[in-house]
């Protein structure tokens, strides 16, 4: 019986994999660069495009900001994107040509370039608490042959300070480390030093 479950598990995982491998023209998540990988694992052979994330780098807590992810150059017939954010309390809202998939935004279908440029508009709803978050965007510039070759992707990030931001920039990998607390422990002496320095400065001034 347990054996059967295990086989079912393997089947579920491999069918998931094949969905992501063969249906990415309708969007694929986990490829924004946030998790260390992006579209170029599969999309090869084309010229590398340039990508940029544009929008406000500061937001009030709870405010909504309008952002644009732009792909320029490369094969430049059609393209797609994957947008992610490293704060679970932030929300991404899809604009034209995009759709939400899990917590991320992806292209709903390959989008046609306008000249040498393809723009994806979306909005970011900031968390209600102060934090410094990071937006991740990966974009594929494709030749519209419905295959993964002759295309190429690039990725970029944009830091957004919500309210006063967070004093310690949280490393997403350290955050996942459950036994951890190492990032907090590591930063404590730094804060201590900064405070001591401030105290010294005050004393000198008076
Ligand atoms: C696991 C491999 C794989 C990854 C990773 C992948 N793709 Fe694809 N993609 C494919 C395959 C295979 C096709 C062709 C079949 C199809 O249309 O789905 C394709 C097709 C496309 C097309 C149409 C290409 C054309 O020339 O017509 C676009 C656009 C696209 N993907 C965007 C993306 C974006 C954006 C990413 C990253 C966020 C991405 N893909 C990541 C495998 C992948």
TrEMBL record:
Superkingdom of the source species: Bacteria
Q: Cross-referenced InterPro entries, in alphabetical order?
A: MYXO-CTERM, TM_Gly-Cys-Arg_CS
Write out the entry's keywords from A to Z: Signal
| Leader peptide range in chain numbering | 1-23
NCBIfam families reported in the protein's UniProt record:
choice_anch_V (NF041895), GC_trans_RRR (TIGR03382), MXAN_6652_fam (NF041894), MYXO-CTERM (TIGR03901)
* Name the record gives this protein: Uncharacterized protein
């Amino acid at each position: 019986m347990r054996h059967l479950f295990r086989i079912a598990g393997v089947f579920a995982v491999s069918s998931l994999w094949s969905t992501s491998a063969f249906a990415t023209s309708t969007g694929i998540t986990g490829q924004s660069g946030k998790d260390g990988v992006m579209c170029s694992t599969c999309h090869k052979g084309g010229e590398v495009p340039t990508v940029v994330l544009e929008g406000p780098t500061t937001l009030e807590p709870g405010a909504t900001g309008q952002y644009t992810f732009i792909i320029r150059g490369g094969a430049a017939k059609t393209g797609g994107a994957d947008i992610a954010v490293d704060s679970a309390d932030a929300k991404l809202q899809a604009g034209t040509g995009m759709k939400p998939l899990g917590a991320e935004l992806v292209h709903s279908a390959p989008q046609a370039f306008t000249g040498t440029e393809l723009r994806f508009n979306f909005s970011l709803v900031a968390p209600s608490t102060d934090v410094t978050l990071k937006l991740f965007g990966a974009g594929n510039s494709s030749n519209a042959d419905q295959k993964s070759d002759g295309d190429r992707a690039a990725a970029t990030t944009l830091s957004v300070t919500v309210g006063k931001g967070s004093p310690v920039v949280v490393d997403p990998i350290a955050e996942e480390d459950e036994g951890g607390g190492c990032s907090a422990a590591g930063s404590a002496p730094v804060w201590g030093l900064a405070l001591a320095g401030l105290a010294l400065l005050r004393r000198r001034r008076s």
